[in-house]
Amino acid sequence: MGTMTLAVLSLLPIATVAIFLVLLRWPASRAMPLTYAVAAALALFVWQVPGLQVAAATLNGLVIALTLLYIIFGAILLLNTLRASGAINVIRRGFTDVSRDRRVQVIIVAWLFGSFIEGSAGFGTPAAVAVPLLVGLGFPGMAAVMAGMIIQSTPVSFGAAGTPILIGVNTGLFADPAIVAYGMERVAGEWPEFLHLVGFRVAALHAVAGTLVPLILVSFMTRFFGERKSFAEGLQVWKFALFAALSMTIPFVIAGYFLGPEFPALIGSLVGLLVVVLAARRGFLVPKPEEAWDFGDKAGWPAEWTGSIEIKDDAGNGRTMGLLLAWAPYVIVALLLLTSRVWDPFKEFLQRVTLTWPAILDSNVDMTDNVQPLYLPGGLFIATSLITFFLHRIPGPAYRQAWSTSLQVTASASIALVFTVPMVQVFINTDGGAVGFAQMPIVLADGVASLVGGAWPIFAPFIGGIGAAVAGSNTVSNMMFSEFQFGMGQRIAADPVWIVALQAVGGAAGNMICVHNVVAASAVVGLLGREGSVIRITLLPFVYYALLPGAVGYLIVSYADQGILNAGTYLIALIAGLAVFSIVRYGRRPATA
């Protein structure tokens, strides 16, 4: 069977998602069982993978789905705990003191605080923290989920203290002795120094693309969730959006250069938070109070915007609470996430309880990750909830209700996830079949490579993005494709280090359109059945975030042969021109609100 035929067949599960979930807007609970059936049929009858291996991959997916549901439950429980204590209302008032403008609030919470949580814990945790916080501040559930997806881009390659580079790229490349020898010769040093080089290039590419992310975030929010449905209302805060972007991306790149892959997201977001919050409090570049933008009257919101979780103003039984005490649970969870990832004694303590399942059903499928319930973010969310119960002196009946409600909302997310994640695992574990075909993701990448040839750098991030969108992880995408991307760089006589960097950046962008990330984020705010609508919104930001680094990468690797004027330059000029035109044309602030 030819390369292109196999590539088209391997595309079928993704096409099924696109048609039924995104275009026809089926809920994930209906679309994903169908997608699973397509992937399993291809594995069994075309790739001729043994049925035992398909069953093992399915079981592995179910285990991963349960860990995701555990994280979702912990995040919902923390939110409901803060509702019961009244802390959410205090936090809401605190943000109003900084700025009543929702555009400013979403940049601070999603872009900066979300990036810090990503740098600390990774694996979609920002959506579990920032999305419910936005809902608590009064954002529509769908707007909060959209924001949580869009910001899962710039910090993701350095999430969980650099895991996508230190584990993903490392695992993908280190198995090939020739690549290891090349890397060590390239840096005239040890292998970790080569990973440091890859990490810095990834950080530089992210900084370029990330500069426009806060502006895209607010523009999409005003376009899809504003009364006037206007991009212009978001573009009107372009100065603040670019200031917030650079406040994060400049220290982000510096940390990548001097400190390595563990620190860009952590240091960039912390510096950005400090600078931007202080600036906003002093009114620097923020809209005047009379120009503050807000969502329309909640009574007029479409039903699909809101989930089953609502924050009522009477939560907390009328008790008063200071801002520091209200924020204490988020400070605690951030510290727990950070220390559990970077402080070895605490990390080892939490990892003592470990569940593993090698060679599932005696197949060649191993459990993707050991299950460590204390170390997983879900365990830390639950621990924070218990601390908050005593810290905020929540009445017992109210706290029991928080647990009950959280279990009910989590259960509603289970149907979609128990098909979504097993589908992913079947799709990935399709090597070793009787006909000897490579696994579906690699076959798909081979098909693209045969079509685009020397233009590969432009398409490399899209392959990484598709890998992450399917697998739900930049780390897994890097594991799958790093060696392939390195080989493509050598095949087209381009610097393979830049091609691997483009893979990692694209893998980060793929989180914006990942089905099970959207399902998880939606579940946290009780917004299920509208996953396709969210992906329709985030698809364009994904294309931007994959295309611009691809253009930059093409310019860099082609400069020696083609000079400064090449396809990459033209694409960069087009994207930059559209951005400048949009700001100049629509970014003028109105005289009155």
Would you write up a description of this structure?
The protein is mainly α and 593 residues long. Helices cover 72% and strands 0% of the residues. It contains 25 helices and no strands. It has helices at residues 3-23, 28-45, 51-85, 87-98, 102-121, 125-136, 141-150, 159-174, 177-187, 191-210, 213-225, 232-235, 238-258, 264-281, 323-342, 344-350, 377-391, 396-428, 440-452, 456-471, 474-491, 496-509, 515-524, 531-562, 567-586. Helix 19 (440-452) packs antiparallel against helix 20. It is globular.
User: In angstroms, what separates the terminal alpha carbons?
Assistant: 62 Å
Number of helices: 25
In N-to-C order, the SSE pattern is HHHHHHHHHHHHHHHHHHHHHHHHH
Strand content: under 5%
Approximate helicity band: over 70%
List the helices and strands and how they pair.
Elements: H1 3-23, H2 28-45, H3 51-85, H4 87-98, H5 102-121, H6 125-136, H7 141-150, H8 159-174, H9 177-187, H10 191-210, H11 213-225, H12 232-235, H13 238-258, H14 264-281, H15 323-342, H16 344-350, H17 377-391, H18 396-428, H19 440-452, H20 456-471, H21 474-491, H22 496-509, H23 515-524, H24 531-562, H25 567-586
Helix pairs in contact: 1-2, 1-19, 1-24, 2-18, 3-6, 3-17, 3-18, 3-23, 4-15, 5-6, 5-8, 5-11, 5-13, 5-14, 5-15, 6-7, 6-23, 7-11, 7-23, 7-24, 8-21, 9-10, 10-13, 10-22, 10-24, 11-13, 13-14, 15-16, 15-17, 18-23, 19-20, 19-21, 20-21, 20-22, 20-24, 21-22, 22-24, 23-24, 24-25
